[in-house]
Amino acid sequence: MAAALLCVLLAGPVLLVAAGPVRDSINGTVPLVVWHGMGDSCCNPLSMGAIKKMVEVEIPGIYVLSLMIGKNVIEDTENGFFMDVNKQVSMVCEQLAQDPNLKGGYNAMGFSQGAQFLRAVAQRCPSPPMKNLISIGGQHQGVYGLPRCPGESSRICDMIRKALNSGAYSDLVQEHLVQAQYWHDPLNDDLYKKHSLFLADINQERVVNETYKKNLQRLEKFVMVKFLQDTVVDPVVSEWFGFLKTGQGKETETLQESVLYTEDRLGLAAMDKAGKLVFLATKGDHLQFTREWFDENLLPYLR
């Protein structure tokens, strides 16, 4: 992920930042919590570190927390591959609850897998309150493929592909491989619903947790950004909460066509009707968009 972001940052007038249209009573800003994607870390000066600085320049006085999962950058990067997602979410919930800068609420911005992890925070941990969630290339219905691995971790990604193909829903793989926990196999829907430790839970696949539904609907805005030439996320419609139709691996359906929406198992239909869901698209590969696109489409959420 770091390499992908580096390409973007060096490709001209490009900016990858986001926040929300609410204000803090102390200095006129709302704190921002950022969760990086696979293969990246909280503080890489060429990716999340640069984004943090750019947000701070764009919004003077803002408090930006770029989440570190572990004791250092190396652990943070490794945990993006190997630490149980539910444990990561619990750690983040505890960290946010103990941060006095966030007690009045915060906006959240997730890059790639960090987006669905932050959605889990919104659903499971309503205090302090998340005001706006901005998903930058997040996979909210999971993935069914790993066509191109971001960053420079090709060896790790080759290992991940083999593990996913051989037994994504085995206890061993589910417990020790992050990407398996949002692996969504439409050809083995029963196995997915029964054994997925993370995604099937936050997407209400087994039972409807009314607390999850209530908490998610507390968001003021849920913004989802899809990349039209994405070579990392498969299927790319997952970035807009769509996915492959059950029982086959080619034809996709939109969020609005899904059972999740028609039965409103997560409250997304109600949020959509209330104008809380925002669907944005941009040309470009995973996590890449121009400064002009950002100014026109995301900057209004900073006002």
Report on this structure.
The chain is of the alpha/beta class. 36% of the residues lie in helices and 12% in strands. The strands form 2 sheets. It has a 6-stranded parallel β-sheet with strand order 2-1-3-4-5-8, with helices on both faces. It has a two-stranded antiparallel sheet with strand order 6-7. Strand 1 (32-35), helix 2 (48-58) and strand 2 (64-66) form a beta-alpha-beta unit. Helix 4 packs across helix 5. The two termini are 28 Å apart.
User: Judging from the principal axes of the Cα atoms, what is the shape?
Assistant: globular
Q: What ranges have pLDDT less than 50 throughout 5 or more consecutive residues?
A: 1-25
The proportion of residues in beta strands is 5-15%
Helix/strand order, N-terminal first: HEHEHHEHEHHHHHEEEHHEH
Helical content stands at 25-40%
How would you classify the helix and strand content by structural class? Answer: alpha/beta
Average pLDDT = 87
How many helices? The count is 13
Major beta-sheet overview: 6 strands, parallel
Rg value = 18 Å
Beta strand count: 8
The separation of the N and C termini measures 28 Å
List the strand order in the largest sheet: 2-1-3-4-5-8
In short:
The chain has 303 residues and is α/β, with parallel strands linked by helices. The chain contains 13 helices and eight strands. 36% of the residues lie in helices and 12% in strands.
Keywords:
globular, two-stranded antiparallel sheet, six-stranded parallel sheet, 303 residues, 8 strands, alpha/beta, disordered N terminus
Secondary-structure map:
Elements: H1 2-9, E1 32-35, H2 48-58, E2 64-66, H3 73-82, H4 85-98, E3 106-111, H5 113-124, E4 130-136, H6 154-167, H7 171-176, H8 189-195, H9 199-202, H10 210-216, E5 221-227, E6 243-244, E7 252-253, H11 259-262, H12 268-273, E8 277-282, H13 291-297
Parallel strand pairs: 1-2, 1-3, 3-4, 4-5, 5-8
Antiparallel strand pairs: 6-7
